[in-house]
Amino acid sequence: MIKMKNVYKKYANGVVATNGINIEIDRGEFVYVVGPSGAGKSTFIKMIYREEVPTSGEIIFDKINIAQLKQKEVPQLRRRIGVVFQDFKLLPKLTVYENVAFALEVIEETPENIRKKVTEVLALVGLTKKARMFPNELSGGEQQRVSIARSIVNQPEVVIADEPTGNLDPETSWDIMEVFEKINARGTTIIMATHNKEVVNTIRHRVVAIEGGIITRDEIGGDYGYEQ
Amino acid sequence: MTFASISAVTVTLLLVGVFIVMMMNLNKIATNLEEDVEIKVLVDLAANDAAVKELEEKLKSNPNLTDVQFSSNEEELEIMIKGYGEEFALYKQGNPLRHVFYVKAATPQDTAKVAKEIEAYDSTYEVKFGEGKIEKLFNVLNTGRNIGIVLIIALLFTAMFLISNTIRLTIVARRQEIEIMKLVGATNNFVRIPFLLEGIWLGILGALLPMILITIAYFNLYDYIQPKLEGELFQPLDKTPFIFQLNGLLLATGIFIGVWGSFMSVRKFLKV
Q1: Which of residues 69-88 of A touch B (CB under 8 A)?
Q2: A3 within some domain
Q3: Does residue A7 form part of some domain?
Q4: Is the previous residue joined to B241 through a cis bond, with omega within 30 degrees of 0?
């Protein structure tokens, strides 16, 4: 479903972030992307939802080469990919419900569809009772659930998570991982950059290690492999 | 922040508006002066009635001339008597004056050129048009006009800069919102349109106060000044339609700078 061929990315300041990445990710997979800070993990992930464009190489997303996608076509790609961040990126002035509905409003869904989908997805992440609360009234874990709900409310084929448990305490991290497991079980591909050794070593999935801009290890059911 | 943007529009449009009022009135005075420039064609003493008639036809058929008026030597003498006193009435016995044609150049700036042309006609004795003086006048008037236009344009640019800056601040405050919109797949237009609408509103609201103030001020000023200038060469511009045109211009300018400002500012944030 996602295929990278010799993906090379050099930033304007001269930093080479990825130096020839080749990978193939199938539909429904759960992939951890691990590696030291500054190794190219974030760039790797950003190139999938086209926040960054590779300097050279191909990134095929379901037959489309997104490395050469026109600016006009980016919104269509983004609608097929959900993104979750370490810092949640919620709008503080909107309630939980509105934050999730926001993702559907901007793609101009009908009001009844919005109501239906938001209610459904809030139930999935276990926030039905907190729908009317504001982000600052929630715990970190709950905020991350809202952010996950927002990322999946449009039923994307892929969810990309950049350090989703980075700001959370260990116990909350497990709850969040449970949510991701549920989403993955519904057939959604998950690509997660993480530093959370416990999680990677306990909930085993495919592990892709990136170091110095290249993939140094790619094993299904592998462990984290680094000392923290 | 909205308040800052609106006041930026208000202040600049007020300046622009006052300036335009002054410029347009100065321009009116300048045009009045220019249109008042006459060419005096003195007819040769030897010319008989037929020759005078012929000269008149020639002047009237010249497309570069307008407003051809004949004044016989008797009429000229009357003017002189009125101007210099009854003593000149003595000349009625033997009038030494010439017949005169008063003409105006269709384009006042061409006066000198046209005067030369007339000099070549038969039966003319001399062509007078205040040589030297009117060129200077035209120069001064043109320089004044150009300076005015440059200042208005400079003011408008300052306004645009101010507004795009203030709107940019508004947008920076909403940067996160735009970023999330883009991430979940909003099209550029979807993100842009609210800001453009906001720009239009900023422009309208910002133009409102200058429009009201300038209208009230001009109506009062006109009513105060106009009676004092009754019958003078200098007349202020009539209240209507001038003030309505000016209001339309201010409103359009306000909307334009609002839209332009927001368009320029939002553009930067759409490249996510």
Answers
A1: 71-72, 75-79, 83
A2: no
A3: no
A4: yes
Beta bridge partner(s), residue A216: none
Nearest residue on chain B to A93, alpha-carbon basis: B177
Stretch B34-58: mean pLDDT = 84
Please give the tally of structural domains in chain A: 1
Q: How many CB atoms lie within 10 A of CB B241?
A: 10
**Confidence band for B199, pLDDT divided at 50, 70 and 90:** confident
Architecture of domain B38-128: 2-Layer Sandwich (3.30)
A63 occurs within a structural domain: no
Range of the domain at A138: 25-39+75-219
Q: Which two tokens stand for residue B112?
A: 């000198």
User: Given CB atoms, is A53 within the 8 Å cutoff of chain B?
Assistant: no
What radius of gyration do chain B's Cα atoms show? 29
Give the bridge partners for A2, in sequence order. Answer: A25, A61
Q: Which residues of A touch B180 (CB under 8 A)?
A: 89, 91, 102-103
Residue intervals in chain B for CATH 3.30.70.3040: 38-128
Question: What DSSP line would sit under B96-146, residue for residue?
Answer: ----EEEEEESSGGGHHHHHHHHHTSTTEEEEES-TTHHHHHHHHHHHHHH
Its ipTM equals: 0.84
Length in residues, chain A: 228
Return the CATH number at A103.
Answer: 3.40.50.300
Residue B9's contacts (CB-CB under 8 Å, 6 or more residues apart) are: B159, B163, B202, B203, B205, B206, B207, B254, B257, B258
Q: How far apart are CA B31 and CA B234, in angstroms?
A: 10
Residue B272 has pLDDT above 60, yes or no: no
Interface residue A174 vs chain B (CB under 8 A): no
How big is the A-B interface in CB pairs under 8 Å? 43
Q: The pTM is what?
A: 0.70
Taking CA–CA distances from B181, the nearest residue in chain A reads A106
Would A20 be classed as within a structural domain?
no
